[in-house]
Design goal:
The complex is a heterodimer of chains A (about 400) and B (about 230). Chain A has about 400 residues and is of the alpha+beta class. Chain A is built from 11 helices and 14 strands. In chain A, the strands form 3 sheets. In chain A, strands 1, 3, 4, 5, 6, 7, 8, 9, 11 and 12 form a 10-stranded mixed β-sheet that branches. A two-stranded antiparallel ribbon of chain A has the order 2-10. The chains are: A alpha+beta (about 400), B alpha/beta (about 230). The structure holds adenosine-5'-triphosphate and magnesium ion (MG). The site of magnesium ion has 3 residues of chain B, from helix 1. Chain A: It comes from Bradyrhizobium rifense.
Chain lengths: ~400, ~230
């Protein structure tokens, strides 16, 4: 047993000490693997940073209720009676007037035109009650005023107004053949709400034929822990077939769609590149075996086992790949960690976020590197172990 | 296992062929050979007569097709590859024409390689390496790398490597083929000492009649058969 270990150690030492003779080829493999890991980690760090940023922008003491199983607002329906039941639910904060701090909301889409490209895109149009703005962090009117209840007035999030035509203060726009006037511009602490248009709920309900129904209910909790009580209340009442979660949890869930998408782009790209670097690793390791043929054969003649030459070759490959992986991870960390990005598509069009690496992601990158090293070394190592000794000694 | 009194090498009716594509070259067809323990044999013969092939068969790094081959009391034709590996480690020392040292290892590290296959601890290994390098007169070159040494010195390191684990049989393929006369004589004297004083059995392939005179006898291989000539000591 100890002899096997000593053999492997000796063969590996000899391999690694002869690396300088194959410096450029080995370096090329290291760099190729490093690039694969950099690309993978850049994508994973982007997805991770995006998701964390979105999740962080949600509040823990705001509850969001949607119809059970409707993964996003657009698919949800909450009926008037259900809204009332939520308002009477446990853990809901009440204002100075004693009214529950809740907001039933509609979430519709309307067409808009991008300023930069002139292309059409759907924009979120939200109908909310008088308490709606207060149930979101940092909502302030930066220009103009709040819409008046019962009128065709809208206020526009500043990110949306910047990106789409026709939403300047005082302009009128047409949705669903009705005309609306922009009476205010609002900010919302940089959150996704800045990419929305807001209008009075009852007006939207009647003009869009949704009388008596909303899509979500938003409520302030007396404290973050109260979400449990509210969820238990909703689950136990058969009239309330609702999913109740904190705004932070809801955002994290929404972000996971996009971050999954980023990962689904990143992995195939990295794996395709990994195949390229695998070809390089195979080439490097086959030439390593060829260059060491006499040495391998000499060791075998002395009595070294085929297994030790197998493992020695494999370890060389794994070490090259691991070095590449570490360099790739370091490069990602230096270049991308904290790198700021924005404008990802979907409902989070204006989110500004940082790339964020984590030990788990780095582990994934290194794992991919080692897989490349493993397969890049396997067949050359088999060749090293199976090479006839006589052929290696006399170079036939 | 045979008794320790059995000859070092016993070959009976050995056949060895190489097939290259559709061509089959017969190297040996019914070869017989006995080499007693403690012998020092010079093996001569024209190029291509099968000297190296025979040495490889004796050392268990090549396989015969049919026939018996017993070396150091072991029937090599009955051993598996891994058994052969282990057998080589304890019974055979190879000495090659071009030394076959590991260029990235020092003299001492090169000589230590066969000891990594034993149960010896680090300290014992170092002692054995020093002893072996002392035997070949290179005690002061322990930390030198092959490229810092002359051909003769490198071959002496190779001899130290071949004897360090105390094998009974040394197989030398043209050990002086790449050396000048004086250096060759030094190397051959060392082999002679190993045979005479340490009792090593030596089979040495050589083209050089002067080198063959260091052996106890020579065998002439021609077309796969031996013509034996006793030499005056
Ligand atoms: N691996 C091999 N495959 C095919 N033929 C081989 C192989 N090894 C040796 N031979 C052939 O076997 C014959 C004997 O070769 P060998 O090397 O034993 O000769 P030798 O007596 O050592 O010659 P030299 O004096 O030139 O070293 C030669 O004809 C050679 O071409
Ligand atoms: Mg030869």
């Amino acid at each position: 047993m100890r002899s096997i270990f000593l053999q492997i150690l000796a063969v590996t030492t000899i391999n690694l000490k002869s690396l300088p003779q194959r410096l450029w080829l080995s370096l090329a493999t290291v760099i190729a693997v490093g690039l694969v890991v950099t690309v993978l980690l850049a994508f994973l760090a982007m997805a991770n940073g995006f998701q964390r940023t979105i999740a962080d922008s949600g509040a823990e003491d705001i509850a969001v209720a949607l119809r059970s199983g409707s993964l996003s607002e657009i698919n949800s329906v909450v009926l008037r009676d259900q809204v009332r039941l939520i308002e009477d639910g446990p853990g809901i904060a009440r204002g100075a007037d004693g009214k529950p701090q809740t907001s039933g909301e509609l979430y519709l889409t309307v067409d808009g035109t991008k300023r930069s490209t002139g292309t059409k895109a759907s924009l979120p149009l939200r109908g909310l009650g008088p308490q709606g703005p207060a149930l979101r962090r940092g909502v302030v009117i930066t220009a103009g005023r709040m819409f008046n209840p019962g009128t065709n007035e809208i206020i526009v999030g500043k990110a949306l107004g910047k990106e789409f035509e026709g939403f300047d203060l005082g302009q009128t726009v047409t949705f669903n053949s009705t005309r609306w006037t922009v009476v205010g511009i609002f900010a919302a602490d940089g959150s996704v709400f800045e990419s929305e248009i807001w209008a009075d709920l009852p007006v939207l309900q009647s003009l869009f034929k949704r009388v008596g129904a909303v899509q979500t209910v938003r409520a302030r909790l007396i404290n973050p822990a109260a979400i449990e009580a509210l969820r238990a209340y909703s689950d136990s009442d058969p009239r309330l077939k609702l999913d109740v979660m904190s705004e932070a949890a809801y955002f994290a869930q929404q972000a996971s769609n996009t971050s999954d998408l980023i990962q689904k782009l990143g992995w195939p790209l990295a794996i395709a590149m990994a195949f390229g670097s695998l070809a390089g690793a195979l080439n490097t390791m086959y030439s390593s075996v060829a260059a060491r043929a006499t040495e391998i054969a000499t060791l075998r003649a002395i009595g070294f086992s085929g297994f030790s030459t197998f493992v020695g070759t494999l370890v060389e490959s794994l070490i090259l790949a691991a070095v590449g992986g570490v360099i790739g991870a370091a490069a990602t960390y230096l270049v991308f960690d904290g790198f700021t990005a924005s404008t990802i598509g979907g409902s989070f069009s204006q989110v500004v976020f940082n790339f964020q690496l984590s030990p788990r992601l780095i582990g994934q990158g290194l794992l991919l590197a080692l897989v490349v090293g493993l397969f890049g070394g396997l067949f050359p190592a088999l060749r090293a172990a199976r090479m006839p000794i006589v052929a290696g000694l006399y170079g036939s | 296992m045979s008794s320790p009194n059995s000859p070092m090498v016993g070959i009976v009716d050995l056949c060895k062929r190489y097939t290259k594509g559709k061509e089959t070259i017969t190297i040996f067809n019914g070869l017989n050979l006995a080499i007693p323990r403690g012998d020092f044999v010079a093996m001569m013969g024209p190029s291509g007569s099968g000297k190296t092939t025979l040495l490889n068969l004796l050392g268990g790094i090549d396989r015969s097709d049919t026939g018996e081959i017993e070396v150091a009391s072991e029937r090599l034709d009955r051993l598996s590859e891994s058994e052969l590996s282990r057998w080589r480690a304890s019974h055979i020392g190879f000495i090659f024409q071009f030394y076959n040292l590991m260029p990235m290892l020092t003299a001492a590290q090169n000589v230590e390689l066969p000891l990594l296959l034993t149960r010896l601890g680090r300290k014992e290994r170092r002692q054995r390496v020093e002893t072996a390098l002392g035997v070949v007169g290179l005690a002061d070159r322990v930390k030198h790398y092959p490229k810092e040494m002359s051909g003769g010195q490198q071959q002496r390191v190779a001899i130290a490597r071949a004897i360090v684990s105390d094998p009974a049989l040394l197989l030398c393929d043209e050990p002086t083929g790449d050396l000048d006369r004086d250096t060759a004589d030094e190397i051959l004297s060392i082999l002679q000492v190993l045979n005479r004083d340490l009792g090593k059995t030596i089979v040495m392939v050589t083209h050089d009649p002067a080198a063959a005179r260091y052996a106890k006898r020579s065998l002439h291989l021609d077309k796969g058969n031996f013509i034996e000539k006793e030499l005056a000591a």
